[in-house]
Amino acid sequence: MDKEIVLDIETQNTFQDVGGYDTSKLKISVIGIYFYETDEYVAYEESEFPKLWSRLERSGRLIGYNSRSFDIPIMNHYYPGDLCRFPQLDILEKIQQALGFRLKLDDVAAATIGTHKSGHGLQAVEWWKQGEIEKIKKYCLDDVKITKAVYEYGLKHHALAYEDRLSGRRAIPVEFHPETPEETHSVPGGINLTMPF
User: Where does the record place a coiled coil (predicted)?
Assistant: First the structure.
């Protein structure tokens, strides 16, 4: 866990803007990261991504919420290697495996840790259009903090929670511990190098 990172991205545009679900047409405004190794939260703007890549290559698992089908593929359009090959934990993927359906981070966080998100992604797109980059950074890092808290709860208790309309608060069984060495680091020595040389 000491080299794991928690991540979230905000985009400059939406799927509605680009005419359908095509991650290759979305552009990133901010990537928010929590580094367990240094206990720090950092928000990266587009011009700062090269500094992030070198840190990711020395990281453990990349942890996010809906990250495998949203955040990572979009980040991959900026990265010269293949982030999809890095060890990952997608919390939403684990929830869907357990329940058979998807839940919003806000709903899981509210039922699990008693915290709501501070906004939604469409607000971040509007802030981008208005040049409010500091608001985007704060919102993105708020999401990272919530994702981190949900991850740590699930890691400790092997369960998360959600509110069922009929039966109230229900448990979601999850297993967040890495099952194989490859889930901790993709290569021996703990450096994720996927760029073609």
Answer: none
